[in-house]
UniProtKB/TrEMBL annotation:
EC number(s) given by UniProt: 3.1.1.-
Family stated for the protein in its record: Belongs to the type-B carboxylesterase/lipase family.
Keywords: Hydrolase
Protein name, entry field: Carboxylic ester hydrolase
MF (Gene Ontology): carboxylic ester hydrolase activity
InterPro entries: AB_hydrolase_fold, AChE-related_enzymes, CarbesteraseB, Carboxylesterase_B_AS
Pfam families cross-referenced by the UniProt entry: COesterase (PF00135)
Domain Carboxylesterase type B: 15-492
Taxonomic source organism: Pseudooceanicola pacificus
Amino acid sequence: MEIPAMLETGRAGAAPVADAPCGAISGLRVEGVQQYLGIPYGTARRFETAEPCPPFTAPYRAEARGPRCPQIRRMAQGDWLNFLNDPTPTGEDCLVLNVFAPDIPATGKRPVMVWLHGGGYISGSGGSPGADGSHLAARGDVVVVSLNHRLNAFGFTYLPEIVPGHTGVNTGMTDIVLALKWVRDNVAAFGGDPGNVTIFGQSGGGSKVAILMAMPSAEGLFHRAVVQSASSLLRMATPERATRCARLLLEELGIDDPTPEALSAADPETVLQARLRAVARNDGIDDFRPVVDPGTLPANPFEPASLARSAHIPLMIGTCEDEMSFFLAAAGVDFDRIDMDMARARFAGFSRASPDLAGAVLDNIRAGHPDELPSQILVRALSEQMYRRNDREAADLRTAAGGAPVWTYLFRWKTAALDGHLKSPHTMCIPFIFGSVAAAAPLLGRPEQARALADSVMDTWLAFARTGDPNHAGLPDWPVHETTTRPTMIFDDECHVAMDPLPETRKAIAACPAYSTDSGAATLGAAV
């Protein structure tokens, strides 16, 4: 078996060049890793399905990250958030990807890991410092790919009921499929194995992983999947609701006749502001998101037809213990000033439970954690309602349907940031999975302990990418998921397996309406 070589790898200081089917691509050498940044993989008119880029006629210089999709920043700023922030400018020509490969000759085909960024379907990029693929590529002898795709109104405006014959549906997701096809066709030039591709994503990226498992066009393009801290992975928008949001957007843009020219006329910032007004008119519910559609997404990801489609895909799925502390902190909430009455009111507004039920839920959780602040009781309830409940249901459904195994995990490693109020928040897993503990130092603290856990977590994701089983010598034995005992790997200073962790919170939340993007997440500034 001959492994395609990257050109000029033997010359110190020379730019590495990958001779790929799409054309020659020159990159950078950074601390033992070859980086190829901002490679275009597709082109598209606004709201239309993307097409592959034509082959390069001259070597493409992939030395800087490409544009992010136009977006409005929704989170507050702070040093502890900097590892998530990509300063790259935005633009609609955002169909770009990055490749990270070890700067040593490959001894065999390397596993490929494709990262899907968070930020819901609204914001984010594949170029944040916390998701730099260099450490993972070097430690595991793998090829890491990250990518940008269309988001918000640019990726999820549903027009078939408004524009006869319109076929650009779920374009933010079909962009990702196009990127996966690029990986299939070109990754061997970087030493990667197109027959061993793992997709992994956090938050909205985790939901995108789940959706790809249900998309016919993505079949055969990946072989393992990791869903990290995903909340909106069970239910997508309906065509009726998505059409309503699209009509409101066109009204806000003043478009009566939605010709391609009219749809492309407004500048990106105008579209972004029009989308905000459309969502406000839609009772605050953001239906600029993936929609169940016969041609692209025939069923929700964990319905029977989708489960049958993805039955052969091994799955890892899990959350952080205190997911929602991230959103409360980013929204500027003072954790010390929340009392139990305020916590009950906030939870009732979020969960759409009755005030009496919301109060009973928080009181039940507090009984098991009598020494915690009311704000932490609220975080426990919100985190269970928005994240763990849905991820657990997804794991149960996948397991009950049979097929490839499922493993579940819970991040419990605590940070002292923000006077210890964050604990184990949303996004905490990212620097451990990528080994980017230096970039996330203001969040993590405890550098020696963070590095030790990062090594173990990286080895877990790498083992799964290599073999489809996350077990390795640095972890205790991790059984596959089972719907009654629910064995769960707890990632902490001392990793261990717990059976059905946090049962009191699970039981308390079971009486509440299930979370979906129709719930009151917007009242907390929550990204899904």
